[in-house]
């Protein structure tokens, strides 16, 4: 099993939306998929539950940290939902090592049960994020094209406690950054300018998609994506033309990420 964590210490950048799209995409492409929601807001659990596609685990995600061993259903698509207990974990610092150990042994324990695991995280730099990154193979960082977010990339990489480089150096040498994924991209002059700025500063952290130079993975801002997230539908099964158009735009990006996490992408040059 390969584990992918969606991470960025900012809220509202599209982490949960991308996690939802990827979980459905993986599952529909024959990957045995485990979805874990570590954010108490549950914005990954909710659309997956509404879609009625994954089997629900009886335990919620906080139990993966607080108890051992945790067992999930033997089904090809399983959701471990967000739980209220997730909020209390940070307030028990003496147990953080135990939480991290439990989570890691859970991930190791389901290694042969699933092909891919998608973990959505909360934006706080806390034990949930650390435990997820410490157990992951890949991290994908959705990012919005505004100055504040671009300035935040340095913290994403170098934050004292949860910076990706720090986690890789101290806890998890196998951690690989798939890259920065611009989300909610609009074709305004302002966003185009910020995209140019992102390419100039972080070219090596973008995800090449397609054959042309300068083609990078991104998720445009489309109301159909938000609608799918709020309803019981999978984006590419929605009947509306707008949903089909949105799907055509993002499918190459999801396909690229899939080839990377399944190990069919060759060296994608992930750099940390
Ligand atoms: N590509 C997109 N186009 C339009 N709306 C989006 C897109 N991605 C996310 N949204 C919406 O923006 C809001 C925040 O997205 P969300 O995925 O919950 O962010 P995060 O998990 O980073 O906090 C949600 O209402 C979501 O439906
Ligand atoms: Mg979220």
What does this structure look like?
- The structure is a single chain.
- The protein is about 40% helix and about 15% strand.
- It has helices at about 15-30, 45-50, 65, 95-110, 125-135, 145-160, 165-170, 190-200, 225-230, 240-260, and strands at about 1-5, 35, 55, 75-80, 115-120, 140-145, 175-185.
- It is built from 10 helices and 7 strands.
- Helix 4 runs parallel beside helix 5.
- The protein binds adenosine-5'-diphosphate and magnesium ion.
- Adenosine-5'-diphosphate binds near residues 14, 15 and 222.
Q: Could you write a compact summary of the structure shown?
A:
This protein is of the alpha/beta class. It has helices at residues 15-28, 45-51, 63-66, 96-109, 127-135, 147-158, 164-170, 189-202, 223-230, 241-261; strands spanning 2-6, 33-37, 55-56, 77-80, 116-120, 138-144, 176-183.
Note the total helix count.
10
> What is the helix fraction of residues, given as a range?
40-55%
CATH class: Alpha Beta
CATH topology name, in short, is Rossmann fold
* Total domains: 1
Sheet with the most strands: spatial strand order: 3-4-2-5-1-6-7
List the helices and strands and how they pair.
Blueprint: E1 2-6, H1 15-28, E2 33-37, H2 45-51, E3 55-56, H3 63-66, E4 77-80, H4 96-109, E5 116-120, H5 127-135, E6 138-144, H6 147-158, H7 164-170, E7 176-183, H8 189-202, H9 223-230, H10 241-261
Parallel strand pairs: 1-5, 1-6, 2-4, 2-5, 3-4, 6-7
Helix pairs in contact: 4-5
């Amino acid at each position: 099993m390969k584990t992918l964590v969606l991470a960025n210490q900012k809220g509202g950048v599209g982490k949960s939306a991308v996690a939802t799209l990827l979980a459905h995409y993986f599952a529909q492409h024959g990957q045995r998929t485990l979805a874990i929601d570590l954010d108490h807001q549950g914005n990954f659990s909710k659309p997956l539950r509404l879609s009625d596609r994954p089997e629900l685990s009886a335990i919620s995600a906080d139990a993966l940290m607080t108890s051992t061993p945790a067992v999930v259903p033997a089904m090809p698509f399983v959701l471990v939902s967000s739980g209220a207990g997730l909020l209390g974990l940070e307030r028990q610092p003496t147990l953080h090592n135990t939480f991290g150990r439990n989570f890691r042994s859970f991930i190791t324990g389901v290694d042969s049960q699933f092909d891919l695991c998608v973990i959505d995280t909360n934006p706080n730099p806390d034990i949930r994020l650390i435990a997820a990154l410490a157990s992951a193979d890949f991290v994908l960082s959705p990012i919005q094209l505004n100055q504040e977010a671009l300035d935040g990339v340095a913290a994403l990489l170098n934050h004292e406690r949860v910076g990706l480089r720090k986690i890789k150096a101290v806890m998890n040498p196998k951690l690989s950054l798939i890259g920065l994924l611009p989300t909610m991209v609009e074709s305004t002059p302002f966003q185009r300018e910020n995209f140019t700025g992102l390419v100039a500063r972080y070219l090596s952290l973008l995800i090449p998609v397609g054959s042309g130079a300068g083609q990078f993975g991104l998720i445009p801002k489309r109301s159909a994506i938000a609608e799918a997230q709020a309803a019981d539908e999978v984006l590419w099964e929605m009947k509306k033309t707008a949903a089909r158009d949105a799907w055509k735009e993002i499918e190459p990006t999801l396909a690229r990420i899939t080839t990377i996490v399944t190990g069919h992408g060759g060296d994608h040059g992930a750099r940390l």
